[in-house]
Specification:
EC 3.5.4.9, THF_DH/CycHdrlase_CS, EC 1.5.1.5, alpha/beta, NADP, NAD(P)-bd_dom_sf, single chain
């Protein structure tokens, strides 16, 4: 008789709450000491409804943590040069301590050029080349928020990536690529899969740790999850659906992140935490 045992859930909501509480204390202390509250600038190009919602969520969470936010809404017709100029102004503005450029920005814009216009000391979303380099070498610096939140969850649940086979599905600049580099820095054996990967199922079946970061609802199925694997679902598709087929994967995994309540809240917690750290450094406190 085979007995199936469902995986334990990795509770991102609970861990994120503790991080945000701690961050709010640090923000209050900094404000008290310097007379200035930490400030995050959010920049959004266009009016994509999902992006509008995410940015609003980030602003609300900032307010609750005692971080002020300044929002810059730009029309969908904004050019790369205009966006770069806006980000340079915010980079030079002493009243702004952290900058978040909401991704994606639209195909007519050179997103990399825009990211590189963010001053590294204000790159609290961890999207610049400078941040990618420090992340990859395991050096201090700002991490990409979703990858940083994922590694924090692994730590919390006692998962040490060292020596484990990690398979990252997706290689975007803000998610897939940096999460693989963070896992490599923690001594995992990392494989990246992407749209040109020939046999995705075969690769995923080898994984001790799977990170799904694709944007395709329920692409990763339980039958491809190695029994006992740790499954991280970073996907966030319309209708609150992840990139992992939760119902089948939960029967094979040892640990799994739910959607919602897994990776999402950790992303925002990491953003707030890094904003307060950036403000502390810039205010010389
Ligand atoms: N919870 C959170 O905080 C966050 C969640 N997300 C979510 O994560 C998901 C991914 O986001 P993001 O990285 O920005 O997305 P992108 O669209 O930028 O990247 C998707 C990646 O998936 C790869 N891919 C596409 N189709 C397949 C396929 N069939 N098989 C294997 N790989 C494939 C692409 O490959 P290629 O490079 O070859 O094109 C690409 O590398 C989305 O659901 C998004 O909403 C994103 C950011 C934060
Ligand atoms: N430069 C950039 N940085 C990002 O970090 C970034 C981005 N661009 N573009 C879009 C994605 C998406 N994203 C999410 C953040 C939090 C939740 C989140 O907190 N979700 C909750 C549910 C919230 C709800 O729907 O009520 C959860 O999963 O439990 C989801 C998605 C960050 N992104």
């Amino acid at each position: 008789m085979t007995q199936t045992r469902a995986a334990r859930l990795m509770d991102g909501t609970a861990l994120a709450r503790r991080i945000v509480e701690d961050t709010a204390r640090r923000a209050a202390e900094l404000t008290e000491r310097t007379g200035t509250a930490p400030c995050l600038a959010t920049v959004l190009v266009g009016e994509d409804p999902a992006s509008v919602t995410y940015v609003r969520m980030k602003q609300n969470r900032c307010r609750k943590a005692g971080i002020t936010s300044r929002h810059v809404a730009l029309p969908a017709t904004t050019t790369t040069d205009e966006l770069v100029a806006t980000l340079r102004e915010l980079s030079a503005d002493p009243g702004v301590h952290g900058i978040l450029l909401q991704h994606p920005v639209g195909d007519h814009i050179d997103e990399r050029a825009a990211f590189e216009a963010i001053a590294p000391e204000k790159d609290v979303d961890g999207v610049t080349f400078a941040s990618f380099a420090t992340m990859s070498f395991g050096l201090p610096g700002f991490v990409s928020c979703t990858p940083g939140g994922i590694v924090r969850l692994l730590d919390e649940y006692g998962v040490d990536p060292a020596g484990k086979r990690a398979v990252v599905v997706g290689r975007s600049a803000i998610l897939g690529k940096p999460v693989g580099m963070l896992l490599l820095a923690r001594d995992a054996t990392v494989t990246y899969c992407h749209s040109r990967t020939r046999d995705l199922s075969a690769a995923v079946r080898e994984a001790d740790i799977v990170v799904a970061a694709v944007g395709r609802p329920r692409l990763i199925r339980g039958q491809d999850v190695k029994p006992g694997a740790v499954v991280i679902d970073a996907g966030y598709n319309p209708g609150n659906v992840g990139d992992v087929d939760f119902d089948s994967a939960v029967e094979r995994a040892s640990l799994i992140t739910p959607v919602p309540g897994g990776v999402g809240p950790m992303t925002i917690a990491t953003l707030l935490e890094q904003t307060v750290t950036a403000a502390g450094r810039q205010l010389g406190a």
